[in-house]
Amino acid sequence: MRRQTIFLSITLITGIFLGWVFFHSSPAKEETHNHAAETTKETIWTCAMHPQIRMHEPGKCPICAMELIPLSQGGITTDPGAIHMTKEAAQLANVLTSKVSKQSPVKELRLYGKVQADERLLQSQVSYLPGRIEKLLVNFTGEVVRKGQTLAVIYSPDLVTAQQELLETASTKASQPALYDASKDKLRQWKLTEKQVAAIETSGKVKTEFEVFASAAGIVSARRVNTGDYISPGSVLFDIADLSHVWIMFDAYESDLPYLTMGQKVTYTIQALPGTSYSGNITFIDPVLDPNTRIARVRIEINNPGGKLKPEMFATGIVQANLNEYKDKLIIPRTAVLWTGKRSVVYVKQAKTTESIFKIREIELGPMLGNSYVVMNGLNDGEEIVTEGAFGVDASAQLEGKPSMMNPQGGETSSMPGMDMPGDKSKDSKSMPGMDMPADSKPASNASPSGNAKSQTLQHATFGVSGNCEQCKERIETAAKSVSGVSSATWEVATKKIKIEFNTMATNPDAIQKAIAKVGHDTEKFKAPDEVYKQLPECCLYRK
After folding, report:
1. Which of 112, 159, 243, 287 measures 20 to 30 Å from 525, CA to CA?
2. Which residues have CB under 8 Å from 76's CB, separation 6+?
3. Residue 366, SS3 per DSSP
């Protein structure tokens, strides 16, 4: 009986224990299962070009009608200031990166100028005789003359009288040699040669017409007289230019002068002679700037055999200036830099990851090297930065409330009108079927009054700009890029159109057109001031 009681007790205890195990563990498993179900996140669909869009189902973007893509739930950066982009979004935004490295900076300067005659070889052909021009043997501009060539025939009453005096004193030269010598000196002062004086004395006849001979060889650049004109001693008959040696005169802007030195090599081409490249050394830099155009003249000298180079031909020069004071500094592409006021920023890719995770960083820039910049501070050798598509990355950062170009401290993004924010049941939010925003979305401090996030995206525009040549192209593109928010500007000479890429949060097409008009080029909406237009080089004058 006692043994049976013990057996029943053991059986009862075993049953209670097994029941506790099964019935206690099942709720735990169920609780664990439910917790996992709660933590399983629903797939959110977004637009690659408009990341503020959040939808629970696939479809098309309500802004641009692009197919929505799934928002990646993995690879979220632990840095709250970094921006994470999906692979698809980075590809559609054309985001490219490259590693920065130390280089020996070389600044490329592009100079524009013209061929001009050597001022030291310009001569004025004058007459030393008073009288009337009976005949012009050189009578048009551009004619080639040789030294000693007869240019004109002059009748001079004063010279007739002087000849008569010579003939009279020649008969008494034995008794009055002083008078004879004085009469000959008078003819010599009028630049008659000894041969001409001897011929008059030998013939014993007064000559009524005398020739004017060329004192230099060259090209007639200007004709000052006509047949029948009366002239006095010293009157200019012709301007003669010797074009066997010419100057190439380039215009250097004020900002280019620190990189130009005497003796520096310049490689240049002549627009009228394509396929031929010339080079020379700088022989002169104008010490005074033009107060209107703010440029200084830079001179190259070159021999001109055969006269191929003609005055007023357009020339384009390239100078490679070695910046030894910035040796072994980091060099980054110009497209990687975003400007806002005095700040220059870039987006640095997070190291040791294949994900597109970027964080904004302020840097200090040195001089511009054509299409790149010297970096003084802010980056380290080997870091990877965004070199293309930086505005797209910045737009995503603004929309997610992360630190960005226009908002260094960061701020939460504003929701689009008609979008619900999950978990936020405030009275201000309005719903749109199938569309949600993150629960922590609030209007950003730099958002527009309308709260329309579309205005924060990168946009393109095309409009007409008047101009003629490559020098105009340089001036127009520089003016457009000087406007804060403009990432690129390309003006075509053939179409007279400029294509610009700009951030709508920083500027607008009207502001860009005003900036271009201020430097002397008419746009579709704004006309350049007359006083600025008149200061443009002759090749750039487009108004009829």
Report:
1. 112
2. 84
3. strand
Q: Cα separation of 512 and 518, whole Å? A: 10
Q: How many CB atoms lie within 10 A of CB 27?
A: 10
Q: What is the largest CA-CA distance in the chain?
A: 191
Q: Whole-angstrom distance between the N-terminal and C-terminal Cα of the chain?
A: 130
Model pLDDT, residue 243: 92
Contact at 8 Å (CB) between 235 and 126? yes
Contact of 413 with 448, CB cutoff 8 Å: no
The C-alpha angle 236, 238, 240, rounded to 5 degrees, equals 125
Structure tokens at 292: 């209107």
pLDDT for 273 beyond 50: yes
**119-241 — its CATH code?**
2.40.50.100
Quote the distance between the C-alpha of residue 464 and its chain's center: 18
3 state DSSP class of 478: helix
C-alpha span between 427 and 293 (Å, rounded): 60
> Both tokens of residue 158?
């004063």
Residues 6 or more apart from 74 whose CB is under 8 A from it?
none
CB proximity list for 382: less than 8 A, separation 6 or greater = 99, 100, 101
Q: Which two tokens stand for residue 298?
A: 């830079």
Structure tokens at 346: 């870039």
User: Dihedral through CA 336, CA 339, CA 345, CA 349, nearest 10?
Assistant: -40
Asked if 212 contacts 193 with a C-beta cutoff of 8 angstroms, the reply is: no
Beta 486-492 vs 372-377: how paired, if at all?
A: unpaired
* CATH placement of domain 109-118+243-322: 2.40.30.170
pLDDT digit string, tens, across residues 504-525:
888 889 999 999 999 999 999 8
- Residue 232: Cβ within 10 Å count: 9
Neighbours of 44 (CB within 10 A): 18
Which pLDDT band holds residue 15 (cuts at 50, 70, 90)?
low
Domain residue extents for the chain? 1-38, 109-118+243-322, 119-241, 458-540
The 3-state DSSP composition of the chain as helix, strand, coil percent (nearest 5) reads 25, 35, 40
Q: Can you tell me which residue has the tokens 């030998």?
A: 202
Total residues found in the chain within this entry:
544
Cα(326)–Cα(540) distance, integer angstroms: 35
d(CA 513, CA 510): 5
Please tell me the least confidently modeled range out of 20-34, 52-66, 213-227.
20-34
Residue 212 in tokens: 């004017």
